[in-house]
Amino acid sequence: MNQESEIARLQEQLKVNPNDSKILNALIFRLLREGRTSEAIPFIDRALDIDATDIATLWHASVAALHTGQLEKALKLLYELVRLKPDHHEARDKIRFLHGRLIEPWHFAMLNDHERNAVFEAAIKAAVKPGVVVVEVGTGSGLLSMMAARAGAEHVYTIEKSFALYNAAKQIIERNGLSNKITVLNCWSSGVQVGRDIPVKADLLIAEILGSAILDEQIVHFLNDARDRLLKPGGIVIPQRAVLVGALLESKSLRERFRVDTVSGFNLSLFNALYQQPSLQVDLSQFDFKLLSQPFEIFDFDFQKTLPSTRENRFSVKLEADGVCHGIARWIRLFADSSHVMESKPQYSRSHWQQTVEIFEEPVSLRSGSQVEVRAAQLPDRVFVRLSPPVK
Amino acid sequence: MNQESEIARLQEQLKVNPNDSKILNALIFRLLREGRTSEAIPFIDRALDIDATDIATLWHASVAALHTGQLEKALKLLYELVRLKPDHHEARDKIRFLHGRLIEPWHFAMLNDHERNAVFEAAIKAAVKPGVVVVEVGTGSGLLSMMAARAGAEHVYTIEKSFALYNAAKQIIERNGLSNKITVLNCWSSGVQVGRDIPVKADLLIAEILGSAILDEQIVHFLNDARDRLLKPGGIVIPQRAVLVGALLESKSLRERFRVDTVSGFNLSLFNALYQQPSLQVDLSQFDFKLLSQPFEIFDFDFQKTLPSTRENRFSVKLEADGVCHGIARWIRLFADSSHVMESKPQYSRSHWQQTVEIFEEPVSLRSGSQVEVRAAQLPDRVFVRLSPPVK
């Protein structure tokens, strides 16, 4: 019997027994195998209504979620499946695959970044007094929330959009005996409401949602919203402040990691059009490099106040050495509070934040003692830094 | 007027003037803005039939392709759009975004890997005699095809699935004056037919589709197929052979990049469940590390012959030093031909292939002089290496 008539036969049977799980799953299986995912979905929903613990139904629902790009939904279904049937190896394989897609490996470098952990814990200890209520945006593993709870916070409400991280953090917090002090919420912080999701506005807001280029985890949007709605007037924000610092960079080996010119006598420079990312995260200590200028401050971000969505800055920079400038290196000076500061300065830092670079299309030769004009523009989620006039 | 009635009004107008581009694009714009992409698609198709050079239509078609996850289709439409209207900045921004999603930055490190380029060119020069027809699987930038053309090949047929790479390679080959010697095909090599897409079977097959773990670019599948169907019996394959080499690895700093244990007094080890990738690509020279054994050969891949899809290997390894074993490091010994060999051995190599590692869940202390059993399994697209009995 061909697929088409088999599917028709099962649909006929369903008319007689609309809630028969076996028929439903047989039909769903065939529809999914034929790639007819959208037709399968109503039957999957019906099967889940009948029995949300049926292994075949959960598996089919996760397959349909994957086919339609709903990775977090697929993960949730698979977690439930292996909770019910721990030896389902296909489900475990899919979970591993989804974790690889959804979880960035930098989490580990960050959690093992002892300097970061120390400055944040010092700032948290200084800010947490008895009775203090804490809200955190971006739970991650739960580490900073646990630090706040250990420091004596009345209660910590921590918000995590990723279901995988939310689920892991809940388990980690329980393992460390702090479940009664910490509530983990699985949503965007912009969806949290005081009075519904958290009882009162917080005294302390923790938002370690800084990427290597400061703005790349949307801190402007989420912190402005959370400070306005979830923090008491005059409440404390950790981190307090960050400065994006830059310097003119000479590094031929870095250029060769992101640009190609002549290779084996062939001109491959047209290939460069395929990779024009404005900001590239690198660990400069892996490369031979020289800074051609003193560090300069590009933008200062005061997290206690409303962050601007856009702004510009222009300044002139003096060359400290002769050299070929390949681009502009940038890093973070981070104030957890006014006394606890770290800086991901190239070569002097092992910070997981590393550095970011903007590479010029063409290197430019510069002379010690000369001045160049730098022009910086901040958008809500990134910063551009250019020589002015721009270097082609 | 609300969106719903505006959409209804435009649909009425279309009944009178079904081929009016302005009405079509107004309707498409509103449907896309409402997230009703699937309803918009038939109208987009109709608008493209009427005028495939209309800027608004091309833009809408690219938006719909993006919404439905068809990134390559979106890119193709946007290339056409900026060809017709070079100053369309939104389209250029989207192209930049899509390149960032579709093009891996390792291409640059690979193209600037002078040792790789030299051994491949030497093997190509030795294999190309007058009259030789070449087929290449995986064009990339076109570099190896240009080497074959320069060496005197009669003609080179090179096959690239990625539209972005195909498009760039065609331009690069033209820039280097070799368009009359090289034909670039934009499809999977498994879709190429002799007699239809290429005139004859080739004398030489080039397939530099090796990832850092050898199999991760599906070389087993694509090379077996291309050797069978596109190469003359007895034809040459470049590269000729690769050996996956391994060694027992001690590296606390590497472990801390991919695993977390106790941090600031909290037990975070449950976080490790979120990242269980079997093979991690690293540049070991970035880490403090020690190899605890002599290198051992895990699997030998003879590209001249049909590659097995699965196999196993077991052997014992002698410890050369006391140490804490955190996992198994692996690298490639690559024979472009029998005389031109390179090896991405940690610390001794600057190869872009770097190394891969498998990290044990728990480190294990081992004594110099003792023997451990190693068990390796090859699947079509990856290799697992474990201590036997497995280290938990």
Descriptive account of the structure:
- The structure is a homodimer of 392-residue chains.
- Chain A is α+β, with helices and mostly antiparallel strands and 392 residues long.
- Chain A has helices spanning 3-16, 21-33, 37-50, 55-67, 71-84, 89-102, 106-111, 114-127, 143-150, 163-175, 219-230, 252-258, and strands at residues 133-137, 155-159, 182-185, 202-206, 231-238, 241-250, 262-263, 266-267, 280-282, 290-291, 296-302, 311-318, 323-337, 340-343, 355-366, 371-378, 383-388.
- Chain A folds into 3 domains: 3-102, Alpha Horseshoe (Serine Threonine Protein Phosphatase 5, Tetratricopeptide repeat); 108-238, Rossmann fold (3-Layer(aba) Sandwich); 241-388, Distorted Sandwich (Hnrnp arginine n-methyltransferase1), CATH 2.70.160.
- Helices cover 36% and strands 27% of the residues of chain A.
- In chain A, strand 7 (262-263) and strand 8 form a beta hairpin.
- The radius of gyration of chain A is 26 Å and the shape is globular.
- The termini of chain A are far apart.
- The model of chain A has no long low-confidence stretch (mean pLDDT 94).
- The interface between A and B is large, with 47 and 46 residues.
